[in-house]
Every structure is written in C-alpha cells, then in structure tokens.
Sequence to fold (610 residues):
Amino acid sequence: MTEANDPVSYLLTVGGRTYRIDADAETHDIFQWYIEAKGTPTDLAGLSRQQVVARLGRSALPTDFPASDMTIGDSAREAGFWRGWFESTVRDYEERILDTAADTESAGEKQTETSDDGTSPWAPKTRQWTDVPIVADGRVAIVTSRGIVKPSGAVVAGPMPAGDALHKFLVWNWGPKPKEQPQVWFTYEALIGLGVPMDNLPPDDLAGLVAKTFHCEVTWSQSGWFTCRFEDHDGTTRKAQIVLVPLLYLDPPPQQPGDMGVAGKEGTPTELPEDEAEAVKLLADRIAWLAGIGDAGLVPSSRWANVGAQLLDRKRQSGRTKAIEVCPLPTEVSVEAGADLEPTLPVKWDNRPHRGREDAVDVQVDQRAAYLASAGQVELGFGKPKELQQIKVDVFNQQRPPFGLWRLHLPPAEQMDGLTTKLPLPHPSMHWKEPTTLWVTTRSIQHLTAPVESGGAGLGVEELDIDTAWVWPEQSRLLRGWADALRGKLQEARDAERLDYQQMIKAIYTTYLGRMGSGKWPPFHSEHQQPAWYAAIRADTRFRAMRYAAGIATQHGLYPIAAELDAWIYRLPAGTDPQILDEKSTANGKYRVKWTSADKAGTATEGAGQ
Fold:
C-alpha cells in the first residue's frame, strides 16, 4: 500500500501518446479526485503487430508507422517481448495517410463546380466516404464509371478509358511483384463505358470476352470471377482477379441458391441497390468488413468456402501449428459408411399426431450457429491414422479419448432401457427391431454412452462391441481459433443488426465445413479435405440436439413432433408460452424459438388485408 508521502507515477495516454507523470502529494490528490469523480474503469487494450499489419492490408509495418504504445515482456531480451499499439494510434495513422488536405480541398471545389448532374468523374485524391477502414485497400480496387476507388473511399484514378488500361493500372498501383493477387472489381456502368456489350453477352464465351476486353489470358473463371494473366514489358507475368459485379449471379453454389457473395442474395434486402454510387459504397463496406475477420486480411472469393479456407490458413500461419495433410476416409470406412458417416438429425423423422390441431400452436426451435459452436470445441485428429484390430475400450473412460473412427455392432434399440419412440434414436442409423453395424466418431461414442436423460443411449462401452477402428496419433481443437474469429464477427453483426454481415459469416462456416467433408478441393488446398473432422462436428451438433430434446421432455413433458437437421418442431397446447422452449442464451449452439404457427398466421392475415 502506498504511503501518502511516497512518490506516485501516473501513465496518461492522450492523442496516441503515453506520458509518465511523477506526482507530488498535491498533484496526487487532484488526480485521485478526478479519477473518482470522472473516471470509468476500463481495460488497456492494444493491437499486436500482426493485427496492425492485417488491418493495414500490408505484409509488414510501414516505415513511417508510429512507435509502439506499449511493450509486453522483457524489452531487454531479443524476441522476449511484444509490441502493441492503441486503437487510436492505428486510426490516426489511417486518417493521416488518407488525408490529402490541400489537394482534396482544391480538387473537391473543382468537383463541386462540375457535379450538378451527379455523374461527373470523381477527382483523384478525394475520398468519397470516410466510414470504411483501409484494411482491404492493399488488395482491392473498384472500377466505376466515375473513377477507380479503393474500399476505404479513396479515389486513386479517374474513369478507366479502355480495357487495355487495366494492365497499366495493375503495374502502377501494385508494382512489379505484388505478394498476393490483387482484385479489381467492375460495375455495370464501368463495363458499358469500356464498350462491353452487357445487354448482349456471349453466353458460352465470357472468358473470351474478358480476354479480348482487357488484353489478357483468362486461366480460370466462375460466377463472374476471372483469374487473368498479363505480360509485363520485361516479359514477366502477373496475375490478377477480375470481378464483374453484374455477372455474380451466374453459377451459384447448389447449397446457396441466389448467393452472389458480397453482392448479397438475389431477391433479398441484402442485394446491392441499383444506383451505382450506393452499390459501390455498400460493396466496399462489405469487402472491408470481411477483411477484418480475425485480423486476417481476407478477400472475397467466388465461393464462401474459399474464404473459410483463407481464414484457417492465416490462423494456422500465425500460430505454432503442426503440418496438416489431406486425409480422406480410409477405404473400408468410405465403402461401408460413405456419406452416411455421422448424419445430422433424421430429416424424415416425423411424429406428428393425426388428430386435429385445434388451438395448438406449432413452434420451431433451432440452434444458433450450430456447426460453428461444434467446430470450436470438438477435438480433431491429425497425423496419419492407424488401423487397430485390438480395441481397448477403457480408453473411452479417459477425459480425452483418442480421435478415431470406430465400427460398432449395436443391438436393437428396443433392448436398450429408457429409450422412447417419442424421440429419434440417438444415432440415425440405429433401428428399433434390428441390430445395427455402423461407423462412428469418438464424439458419437461419447453420445451413445451418455445417460438417456442427457439424450444418449445409456450404453456401457463394453456393449458397443467395437471390432475395428482407425485412430489418429494426435488431436487438438484445431478449429478453435478459426471458430472464435467467426464467432466474434457474427456477434458484431448481430449487435449491429446487419443481416448482410450475418449471412456472410453463416455462408463462410457452413460452406467451408460442408466442403471439408465432400473433398472437392483443388490440389493446392487439398489439406482442407478432412471428412472425419466434419463427421465429428456433425456428431457433436446431433449430441447437443438430443440433449436439448431430452431436457425439454424431462422439464416440461413436451416432445417434438418433427426434426429438421438441427431444428425441432413442437406442438404446444393453447395458452402455453413458446418461450419455455428458449434456452435464454445468445451463445452459439443454444436453442432459440425461430417461429410459431401463430406468428405465420398473423403475417398472412396482415398481408391479406393490405
């Protein structure tokens, strides 16, 4: 405890600078009064070097970047400390490099004089909007009919005069050897200005049209995205991604119909507006927001699964991780289980009573971000799996049993105590009247051996009759950092009530995890083929669903009448509050009321009266 006469030092941060004040007794009393009267306790948060670099969209800190605001560790030891910067310091730097005060003032006045029709070109060195950070500026430029603008709103050039000018822009803006492929986005109006026949496009040779327009070689294309190769004056080649915004509706992924990536979903409020200026600003905002996920500097892609892979690659690069190799299912498992390895709740399970509903109300509940919750908590195996012929079932009594795939022989469910036909069986491959042979993950074994009142089958490990297995030598929560980054941004999107942001996050984790199980990855991304991981994640999601349903049955005597993936449908007696089915938590994986038939009927009635 400090005595009254002891010298006291205060650290005061103002304008991104921290000052030490050695206070005498009188100054100490003044500070203490001000702290108690005006102060609010808060954490001293800082950004790491990696976070700053990702936010600025750079591969290293700029030479003119301010000195660090804080040091964590022993600065006297080499590699024994970490530097940190305040949010205000980074924000001030962003504003400073975008601040072209003298040029902007004169250019802005000139622009005002010539913009009566609202369509005049944007003057370079102006900023068309100021509420988007520069995090994506290092990788992305948007070509509009009024000029070329970065996602932050900084105008870097006037309207592109012709298609062959794209190569010159790439050389000028990104230099001779960019670390990563840049992306150049084109609006409908910009393409019209370049002479592209947008209303009469060749349906079978869009790649040829792009190659002809921009004087390049198209090496790959999908959904309005084109990877193009250009030859510089010295004979070296460079690649860039050209994105034609009006063509993003083409070839949507089967599991995401109408999805146009950061351009939104067709026919929904997230679709970009018709006005070019409004559309570009919203597009820029989404691109920058995406880049801020997990401080990873992500860029959009023709498929959301690729964005998920980007995030995982960057998270693994920033930590101490072991090599992960492609790991398809062992042939034996693939032949016997195939796509049925750890399915979700049985989609066809339907136990609706035949009697009339009368005044009963149907309620659907589902898990918040079910797969995302499971991905972050499930132990996943890596290394080369080994086949085991002799199984020691006591390993399942350990807190962390090994990650593996196990072949079980289960008796008919009617021989198991406590199970009821009012709920689906704990595993969709089980049968009431017949024995079952099936492959499951370690997580599923934990489910089957859980008590019936917790949604399990109440089996002892000896009753599983395991005759063979494939076990991985190592395991870890390999997707925890990946899931945490997405979880944080998803909560941010919910707090901001941004439906477009929420759709983006959901699309990233659902499509990435789905493709993880399907194995459809290009060779340079083959390590993302991990069907056993996906099976374990689905098993965890199913375990949580069954635990919830068993708990509702115990607490309220209510049973679902149907199951749909991770969702349950309940039929409640008239006057029952549907909120008894809500887990009263905003955490991912928790059940919430999604809709009631009364709400739907009210909506239909309102619509009929309009």
